[in-house]
Amino acid sequence: MNHCIKEIEAIKRRIDSLDIERKDLLSRLSILEGRHQQQQGEVLQQFSPQEKIHIFRQLFRGRDDVFPKRWENRKTGRSGYSPACSNEWVRGVCEKPKIKCSECPNQAFIKVSDDVIRQHLTGKDALNNDSTIGVYPMMSDERCWFIAADFDKKNWQEDIAAFMKTCSNKDVPAYVEKSRSGNGGHVWIFFTNPVTASNARKMGAYLLTETMEHHPDLGFFSYDRFFPNQDNMPTGGFGNLIALPLQYA
């Protein structure tokens, strides 16, 4: 009986110690992330606005014939993304929400351009309205230029740190971006040349499986999905979208 009590007390002390260590590590992580962001800002200042746009477009590439734009209904508080279209809400032409954009006979989708990216990075369009866009990662030929892993629940920082360690061990360059809400993050892996979405997702699944096997103590409940989220393009659709980062950078 005494042995059990001693072991219970030892376990409790160990848990307390781990809690303290976790808090210290999270504090250190926050400091390092702040320094890293500052260093990134210093590096970005070396480039002109046009050079930044060029670099951005080289990295976050997807479909360029259409892109999703964020909308927000201030009355209801609802928000989401829909394909940017020149005919949006034009009376007698746009039939949303009765007809889906992917099925509309009057599609006039706006193509990705330097101006579109500039407006996203500055957060304002030509009329000074809020402008936030995303990208459809899977192109019409079912290839992609990147894969992104989405983590957005409790302990997402620990899960991402473990995933990043696996990427480093496998010599896979990967980059972390905190999500818009601040309660999650994306891990971006870019390809030199476009690859099939199925192969990109297989690679992502392999990295995730390796991470879980080497970190059985982590539940990885924060992992949500990969982008692209499908191997094949849905008939008449665009595939899943992901919000683009680096706004106001």
Q: How would you describe the overall organization of this protein?
A:
Helices cover 38% and strands 18% of the residues. The protein is an alpha+beta fold. It has three domains: 1-46; 62-137, no CATH class; 143-227, Alpha-Beta Plaits. The protein has a four-stranded antiparallel beta sheet. Strands 1-2 form a two-stranded antiparallel sheet. Strands 3-8 form a two-stranded antiparallel sheet. The protein is elongated.
Instruction: Give me the count of strands.
Output: 8
- Number of contiguous helices: 5
Which architecture name of the largest domain does CATH use? 2-Layer Sandwich
Secondary structural class:
alpha+beta
Largest sheet: 4 strands, antiparallel
Produce the secondary structure layout.
Layout: H1 2-44, H2 49-59, E1 68-72, E2 79-83, H3 114-122, E3 134-135, E4 143-151, H4 156-169, E5 175-178, E6 185-196, H5 197-214, E7 223-227, E8 242-243
Antiparallel strand pairs: 1-2, 3-8, 4-6, 4-7, 5-6
Helix pairs in contact: 2-3, 4-5
